[in-house]
């Protein structure tokens, strides 16, 4: 028998304040590119991607990822957005303390509306800004890695830092959350 195109289909959602890079992470995952000046009114709503989980038998997972597409500032995120989500990326910007402080509210929202077993990964995006490079002056980091790591530990979240711009850590974030989801199956 031919091997299946994928073994599992998982719904993932991406939450966090406006401008932390949610659409950019989704575009990086699905299209391997970065838009320096995306149109903020045209958030990317949906992207699909096959990922392979490492292991003795490669498991192929089809991720169906939903982004809030600019609706986060209107607080109009509805129950249907959360319904059936297996994984969730809680995104903040490592140069914005405010976006990190908001994660608590986003997490409360996820816990109130998503299924109880949803796997969440806290993602500190835009790490490229604090390391400089590519002719950029390094920007000041507002959220120390250890602070975010400690918060994730207390809340039972996975944690990573990433950059939609460079691609660093992006696919890994989705892979780790998917691994946790399937570990519970
Ligand atoms: P969203 O509102 O959370 O979906 O955020 P966007 O994906 O629209 O990104 C907001 C702004 O941050 C845009 O100007 C992006 O180009 C920029 N951005 C997103 N991710 C990164 C990143 O990893 N590094 C840098 N330097 N800029 C980023």
UniProtKB/TrEMBL annotation:
It comes from the Eukaryota. GO terms for molecular function: GTP binding; GTPase activity. Belongs to the small GTPase superfamily. Rab family. This is Ras family-domain-containing protein. The chain holds residues 1 to 185 of 218 of the full protein.
């Amino acid at each position: 028998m031919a091997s299946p195109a994928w073994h599992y289909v998982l719904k993932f959602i991406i939450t966090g304040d406006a401008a932390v890079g949610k659409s950019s992470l989704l575009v990086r995952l699905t299209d391997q590119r970065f838009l320096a000046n995306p149109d903020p009114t045209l958030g990317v709503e949906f992207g699909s991607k096959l990922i392979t989980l490492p292991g003795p038998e490669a498991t192929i997972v089809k991720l169906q990822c939903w982004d809030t597409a600019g609706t986060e500032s209107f607080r109009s995120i509805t129950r249907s957005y959360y319904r059936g989500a297996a994984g969730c990326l809680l995104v903040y910007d490592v140069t914005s303390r405010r976006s990190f402080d908001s994660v608590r509210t986003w997490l409360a929202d996820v816990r109130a509306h998503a299924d109880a077993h949803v796997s969440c990964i806290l993602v500190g995006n835009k790490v490229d800004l604090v390391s400089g490079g590519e002719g950029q002056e390094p920007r000041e980091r507002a959220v120390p890695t250890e602070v975010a790591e400690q918060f994730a530990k207390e809340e039972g979240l996975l944690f990573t830092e990433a950059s939609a711009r460079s691609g660093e850590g992006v696919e890994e974030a989705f892979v780790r959350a998917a691994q946790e989801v399937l570990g519970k199956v």
